[in-house]
């Protein structure tokens, strides 16, 4: 049998986030190679009825409700599932999936492992972060939620799939898995083979695509950077494509900061924005393997990003196909954007072409084939 189940804890709509886009890209490749791919999910959108999945099953129960796992058992049986991909760090799902000894089980970690499974308590005052108290609380929380599951994963020779080999040390910092349980695969992308870069069509646009929040995306930094650029790059504008609970807060803040030539758009397909923008900005505190970087690069939209996550060297070569900035140095960020903008059109185009070339390393056909090899060799 070749029946895969992917367990989502929210929507499956690819416009709602990077994890959802990963499987939207990967699932058609699986299906072309003889697999049925099912999804369980907990938030409905218009995408569901025409999704890429063989079948998507809405889970009306909360994951804290025993009814959720009763229904999951039923789905497993009815769909004759023999391969499970668990893409979210729910300790309840880890507990459940780590017991599926008759199936091939993959725990797909879509971000920095410690940020997902060994985080500081959100209720802990900042002054105590990284203190002895913080370290003790993190260990207690991990032991209560994940330790038994991790031991079963190792005992049952299941797989932890990281986004980059650079995350191995981070995972090892709180649990030392047998190396045979760990592998690394980058996110897959559907490269637009028909796109031809015409640099004349690039507009004087700087772009941000993604969730708008403070904790991970550090969105305040983007506004600070634009505050310093807006009076120097008078012909340029900043376009924001994204959303989240903090969007309205930041729209109001942009108004209070008297930011000019800045427009907020809701979540939508960002392709046309990538095609028009000369560069895209990321200011995140941390990332796993950023979808928006590769998506931008395939359209010659040059990425600028803080060097704040381990997988970045897999994606960007500084000043070759993008720009890497010292973590959270907003002054350096401003200078590097100005440095790029002041290049001749020819030299900007060279960097854009290099970005496009780099993006092809992550084509879904390459990554999908590695997934199939991983499943076959389980």
Automatic annotation (TrEMBL):
Protein's GO biological process: lipopolysaccharide biosynthetic process
Segments forming a coiled coil: none
SUPFAM superfamilies in UniProt: UDP-Glycosyltransferase/glycogen phosphorylase (SSF53756)
Superkingdom assignment: Bacteria
Its EC number(s): 2.4.-.-
Gene3D superfamilies assigned to the protein according to its UniProt record, in alphabetical order: Glycogen Phosphorylase B
Glycosyl transferase family domain segment(s): 199-351
One Pfam entry name: Glycos_transf_1
Keyword terms: Glycosyltransferase, Transferase
PANTHER family assigned: GLYCOSYLTRANSFERASE WBBK-RELATED (PTHR46401)
Name of protein: Glycosyltransferase, group 1 family protein
Organism: Bacteroides ovatus (strain ATCC 8483 / DSM 1896 / JCM 5824 / BCRC 10623 / CCUG 4943 / NCTC 11153)
